[in-house]
Amino acid sequence: MSRELTHQQAFQTQCLKELGVVTWLQGQQPVQGEVFRAPQPWARADGVAPVTPAPQQPQPESTFKPPVPPAPVVDERQKDASVADLRRQLGAAPEVIVEDLQPIEETLAPVDSVMSEKVIGLPIPTQMCAYLLAGQLLLITDLPRSFQEQEALDKLALSLAKALLKQDVGEWNVGLFQWPGKLKNHHLVQRQDWALGGFEQFLANQIAGHQPQRVILAGEHCAQFFDGLSEQHVLKPLPLAKVHALPQMLRIPELRKEAWKVMQASFN
Prior knowledge:
Blueprint: H1 7-19, H2 76-90, H3 94-100, E1 126-133, E2 137-142, H4 150-165, E3 172-179, H5 186-189, H6 192-206, E4 214-218, H7 220-227, E5 240-243, H8 246-251, H9 254-267
Parallel strand pairs: 2-4, 4-5
Antiparallel strand pairs: 1-2, 1-3
């Protein structure tokens, strides 16, 4: 036998079902209770008012308040120990307290100001090559921008080394130095220190693993760069000869005789 339930009874039946109550108690057992429904902000269609009114939410005075840190809790034992330590320091010998209260005198330590040596007058742009011949002779020569006679230049350098060292040159290498080369930064192209640093690194790569005994500077550009090196450079104490550039000797054979006289006077 079935009968139609009212809205309240149907809602109560649904709530009991969600609570897990699936059986009805007998009528002779009195049961007292209340069914609470969630407050609804709008009026129901059947005109039934909610059982419990919606609680009023307190509106804060301000939308944001900074967090207030809790007050630090000081341990009483630590506080007593600090007080006892302070009393012990106050009761110390007078000389200890006087030493602690002496003013701190600030003294300025002498600073050795090392001024970077400015090298001026280096020819920029420049192009040169260096020969290391038989591990004993370092020959640096200027090169024009467009130079196409590298083979003839190599033969001339080998001939000079053979005549100067009085032996056949079986081992030799050549390297090219250009400044600024592929460097495009206009702030660095005209930097004299950068150009000199690049030349110094070029020489270090050229004589790596060898200790030449003589140096020949063929041309004005390489002579100026070499003079710009520091006095502590490994090549500075070596015997030195300054002659015309090898490309000029290729065009003017008479310059070879003059260069030979200068080398004989410098190395003998």
